[in-house]
Each structure stands twice: as structure tokens, then as C-alpha cells.
Design brief:
Blueprint (H helix, E strand, L loop, with lengths): L1 H24 L10 E4 L6 E4 L4 H5 L3 E2 L9 E4 L7 E2 L5 E4 L3 E4 L2 E10 L4 E10 L6 E4 L3 E4 L6 E10 L1
Parallel strand pairs: 1-8, 9-12
Antiparallel strand pairs: 2-4, 3-6, 4-5, 6-11, 7-10, 8-9
Length: about 160
């Protein structure tokens, strides 16, 4: 009987420590599997750059038909079934690049303030801080052509869960 009473405190201690470790180490990070686009962004478009890391290599975040990267994009309006060349007379492409953790969802919002002639592209990424691998994303969006004299501002925000 004495050996049983000796084992009980040890078993209870082991269980208590195990529960404490499990509750602190098994916090799951949940991030949406989809991105959201709001504002003046043309919805449902897939943008295909001819190469990755274009924003990092070129330092460009506002792409127009007048720029050196005019031939560097194709777009799809039908979920990727067909690709067509960019119509630079009707559209521009904005990018809001950032380095995030390997799992993330991004809210992309482009608002136009006509009174101040400012176009603001705010990209808010929600990611898991428990994820160790970094990933570079360019956050391309298609918008109606930006008129001359309009200032474009970029605001990248990263939130970690």
C-alpha cells in the first residue's frame, strides 16, 4: 500500500507538467486560406509576371505601359484558363512587396482620394509567428489606369498570430 501512495504524487506531478507543456506548445495558428481584395482593384484577375522577384530586382511597385516592364506581364480574367497581354491603356499594375512567414493571408485594399489626388495601396498580411520559413510576396493587383499627377502611396502591414 505504501508503494501505491508514493506513486500517486509522482503520477499526478507528471500529468500536471505534461498538461502545462501541451497547453503552451500546441497553440495552433489559424490563417485564412484566401486573400481578399477591396477598393478600386479589378476583382477576379490573375496577374502573371514573366519573372519572380521583379519588385525586389527592379525596385518598381507601379507598373505602367510607359515603363520598361510593359511586356513583363500577362493577365487572366477567367481563372487562368487563358492569358492575355496587358491592356496598358485601361489598366496599371501595383505591387506591395513584403517578406512574410510561410503561411499568410493578405487583405489588399486600394483606395482613391480624388480631393488630394492620392491612390493608397494598403496590403495587410496576417501570418503565423510560429512559422520559421520566410517568403517574399509581391502582392500584385490590377487597377484602372492612374491619371497623371496622382501620387501613389504604399502601406505594407504585417500582423503575426
Amino acid at each position: 500500500m505504501k508503494s501505491l501512495s508514493f506513486k500517486r504524487p509522482i503520477i499526478l506531478s507528471v500529468l500536471a507538467i505534461s498538461m502545462l507543456l501541451v497547453s503552451n506548445s500546441c497553440k495552433k495558428c489559424t490563417v485564412s486560406d484566401s486573400n481578399e481584395e477591396t477598393g478600386v482593384i479589378v476583382k477576379g484577375v490573375i496577374i502573371y509576371p514573366k519573372s519572380g522577384y521583379m519588385t525586389a530586382d527592379a525596385g518598381v511597385t507601379h507598373f505602367t505601359g510607359a515603363g520598361q516592364y510593359a511586356n513583363a506581364f500577362e493577365i487572366s480574367f477567367d481563372g487562368g484558363q487563358t492569358r492575355v497581354p496587358m491592356d496598358w491603356g485601361a489598366y496599371d499594375i501595383l505591387a506591395n512587396p513584403m517578406t512574410i512567414k510561410c503561411k499568410a493571408s493578405v487583405l489588399k485594399d486600394v483606395k482613391y482620394d480624388a480631393g488630394n489626388a492620392i491612390l493608397r495601396y494598403k496590403a495587410t498580411a496576417t501570418t503565423c509567428k510560429s512559422c520559421e520559413q520566410d517568403r517574399y510576396i509581391e502582392n500584385y493587383v490590377l487597377i484602372p489606369t492612374v491619371a497623371a499627377g496622382v501620387t501613389v502611396w504604399f502601406e505594407p502591414i504585417i500582423k503575426e498570430n
